[in-house]
Amino acid sequence: MATTDRTMPGHATRPAHRDGNVLRWLTAHTASLVGDSVYFVALGWSAQKTAGPAEVGLVMAAGALPRALLMLVGGVVADRFDPRRVILGSDVLRCLLILSVAAGIALTAPAVWILVAVALAFGAVDALFVPAIGALPPRITSPDQLARVTGMRSLSMRLSQIAGPPIGGLAMGLGGAAAAFTVAGLLFALSLPFLLSMRIRPLERSEGEQPENGTARQDLLEGLHYIRRHRLVGPLVVTGALCELGLISTLNVGMVLLNAERGWGPSGYGWIVSGFGAGAAAGAALLTVVGWLPRAGLVLAGTLFVCSAGAVSVALVPALWIAVVMALVTGSCAGVFGGLNNALVQTATAPAYLGRVTSVAMLAMVGLAPLSYPLVGAAIGAWGSAPVFVGCGAFACLGVAVILASGAIRSAELPRPPRRSAGDGPVPAREHGARHGTAREEHTDRGAAENPQQGGDGAERQVRDGLDRPLTTRTDRTRG
Predict the structure, then answer these.
(1) Based on the number of CB atoms within 10 Å of its own CB, is 424 exposed (0-12), middle (13-18) or buried (19 or more)?
(2) Pairwise CA distance, residues 347 & 297, whole Å
(3) How far is CA 332 from the centre of its chain?
(4) Which residues of the chain have pLDDT under 50?
(5) Residue 189: predicted pLDDT
(6) Per-chain mean pLDDT for the chain
(7) Residue 467: HSE in the Cβ half-sphere, 13 Å Cα cutoff
(8) Which pLDDT score, from 0 to 100, does residue 160 have?
(9) Pick from 365, 306, 348, 356: which is nearest to 462 by CA?
(10) Is 7:202 a contact under the CB 8 Å cutoff?
(11) CA dihedral sign of residues 214, 216, 221, 227
């Protein structure tokens, strides 16, 4: 009896936006994200109909606690098991949980403690889902397509943020909370056939690298040690965390208080947030279309600086329309920065550590950044919006200092897609690597061991791991 081969070749034979395997992953991911948005709408309105404002806040915040506490554990799980299986299991659990809640609400009004329990369970499952989804892209495409895949994923996130709340609101209007929860559960179910039909590259290891047989705690500590010692991944993770901690609170909490302070009201807030979202979508679309940007490390520094300065300027400009324009610029730079940072991390990280690296990177966004919300709110209440926005922007700019202080980031380049004519066949993985340079660095558990090549100006080096995935960096002859 014939069996279906779910593995894929070592190199993509077509661009990511025309790769059916990538598009199946993207469709499944988009369905899950829209399901997330619909779920949060249903949860919030169910709590509002059952309890007062304080209880609503408790219900909505309950899921963040297990998500933050278990995120690093989720990274270990993603690395120990096939990330596709972890994602499948997460979506199955979320589907069953949400459909069970829908059935219960259809029979009786939910108590607050039930909604809190649902939020806690959903957050715990989410802690498994997030690292696994971050570890999957390098297993479904080749390194030269990772920037494009990252852009496509960012566009998917923006689409879900736009489409999810209206779908949830429509379902609430037509059938109440039970209908909204049902729609969310069906969206999670929709992702399953696309995930099942995906092909993934098997996990390969560098020569001499042994499979991990330690405890979960040992795996976690080893992952943290890997990030700390890696000359490129560590600074990239720190840079992303500084950006998130500095800007998320100003955009989510500070923007509401700024509009109230300036008298721009809810409509002004809507215009500014829409401007940021449109800019972020444009930045993601740029990466999706071009698939590669030169001098990626320096572009990373430039976009983070403009993003930080743009966020500060929103609080300093005198007119709403200028604030909207600055939000548009800030969003576009944030979209490019986030995509490049993510693509560089995924390209440089050894495949056996991708889940743990993703979990640490995401912990700053979903675990630590929300802790700054009350601090930013209290600071704006005491000193006003402008000085707090300036302080948060300066904090985010520390990421620029980290980039400029790291030679590995400054010289980092993403693998460039091979140039082929229409009649050329697929480029073998070995030939593809040769086109990017000849000097190679073999990955070790200490990070990237350098083996520089002597040559002319602009000679290239490559970091390679167990999947023979190149991360090109430029070196000058005077440094070689």
Answers:
(1) exposed
(2) 13
(3) 16
(4) 1-12, 207-210, 421-480
(5) 94
(6) 79
(7) 28
(8) 84
(9) 348
(10) yes
(11) positive
